[in-house]
Amino acid sequence: MREYINGDDRVLEAVIPNYSGARRGEMTVVNWNQLDELATFGDRDLRIIEEVGKTSTAKQIDPIEIRTICMRADADLHPDQYRRNQARLARTQDNEDQETVRLSCIAQLTRECGIDRGDVFMANANTKTLVDLITNKKSEFDIELLVERIMVFAAERSGRSLDEIRDWLEPLVSMIAPLGTVAAAGEQRGNGHLFAAHIRLIEFRKALSRFKVYARDEVGQSIGLVLQVTDQSIEFINERLEQLDRMLGKFADMFEGYDDSILKLEKLRRDIAFALDGWEELIVAWEEAEEGMDMAGGEQAVERAIYHIMNFLPVIPDKELYPDDTIGGTGVDVERARQSLVHEMHSWSTNAVDHELQARIKEAKERDGA
After folding, report:
1. Among 151, 106, 312, which residue's Cα sits nearest to residue 226?
2. N or C: lower Cβ tally within 10 Å for the chain?
3. What pLDDT does 343 receive?
4. Concatenated DSSP letters of 96-147
5. Intra-chain end-to-end CA distance of the chain, in Å
6. Quick one: CA torsion of 73, 79, 85, 87, rounded to 10 degrees?
């Protein structure tokens, strides 16, 4: 969906695949309030349409907020019991992630406090250490006492009041939670639904790269284009995770410029969420096809999945990839390559993969280049 501002009016529009016979991968735009005129929707879909219609800002329809709306609708109204259960599990996982991220933030502040105060134990604290101490019934460890001590340290370091530090910690944790835990040296980031989606994209890239080695040449060209766009997304996200790590490495300093810290975290979350938006459906299409690859017709199903993925690649806009480059052109190049491959490999009359057509075009290109 997208938001369109027309004077004082805010119009929500739905961008959906166009299956009316136009070129493959083309999208069509309709008014959000007219969606129910295009199809018959169940209660789950009607709930989502209604909740999105209640939004008033672009921020409320970013991928993170839409995920929350869809997850609530799935948990309450999805006709498939399995999907309802999965949505409820995801909601529970989000709550658990938030608590784990909270502990990782406390661990980071503990390390900073330990380094500042010369306390070796505190300087080497990590999330696992805190979890072990909290869950060990024989331990006399008092997490609240530790939190109070690091709050005092953060207040002194940032020049803020103790009450401000107490009030601001949880909002910071909530902003960080989808991006995963604050990792100490030697630790790996974990938890967080955005970080988990990033890992899925990386694993998808590896699987596709392995398949490309054995794929036919014409399929390999399509995979190459998908890998190019996948690499752009992964690199884009990695750059922002590095920015996040630099911020979180000086956690106490985030309180000094609290408002600025929140704005920076919001932008990082937004960038990463939009970079991942659209990939999950494509990854699922690949996984379903790959699972049946050894069955009769399995290879053809995988190739169809690859063509589907290529047609609906979520290409990051050039202005986001290269904000300092006024020329850009990557997005245009990807679109040209995609359309060239689609036209080359499909029959224009039946829309089926046409290998003879592909071979004739390839031969013609070779003659022209000779």
Report:
1. 312
2. C
3. 47
4. HHHHHHHHHHHHHHHHHHHHHHT-HHHHT--HHHHHHHHH-TT----HHHHH
5. 47
6. -30
Q: Give the lowest-confidence range in 74-78, 127-131, 325-329.
A: 325-329
Q: If you search the block for the tokens 């109204």, which residue do you land on? A: 77
CA-based max dimension of the chain: 81
Burial code (b: 16+ CB inside 10 Å, e: under 16) for 118-136 equals: eeeebeebbbebbeeeeee
Q: Which two tokens stand for residue 343?
A: 């036209």
pLDDT of amino acid 324: 67
Q: What is the DSSP string of 198-265?
A: HHHHHHHHHHHHHHHHHS-HHHHHHHHHHHHHHHHHHHHHHHHHHHHHHHHTTTTHHHHTHHHHHHHH
Q: Which residue has the tokens 């063509």?
A: 307
The four Cα atoms 91, 291, 25, 61 give a dihedral, to 10 degrees, of 0
* Structural Rg of the chain based on CA atoms: 25
What local confidence, expressed as pLDDT, does residue 326 receive? 53
| Tokens matching residue 328 | 């850009």
Of 170, 172, 166, give the one whose Cα is nearest residue 268.
172
Tell me the one-letter amino acid at 185.
A
CA–CA distance, 195 with 97 (Å, rounded to integer): 11
C-alpha neighbours within 13 Å on the C-beta side of residue 276: 27
272-297 average pLDDT score: 89
Whole-angstrom Cα distance, residue 332 to residue 350? 27
**Residue ranges of domains in the chain:** 2-78, 91-316, 325-370
Q: Which of 13, 12, 6, 10 is nearest to 27 (CA)?
A: 13
Spatial separation of the C-alpha atoms in residues 339 and 252, rounded to whole Å: 50
Distance CA 293, CA 300 (A): 8
* Structure tokens belonging to residue 140: 């006399």
Provide the whole-model pTM: 0.82
- What is the DSSP track for 260-282? HHHHHHHHHHHHHHHHHTTHHHH
What span, in angstroms and rounded, lies between the C-alpha atoms of 319 and 327? 9
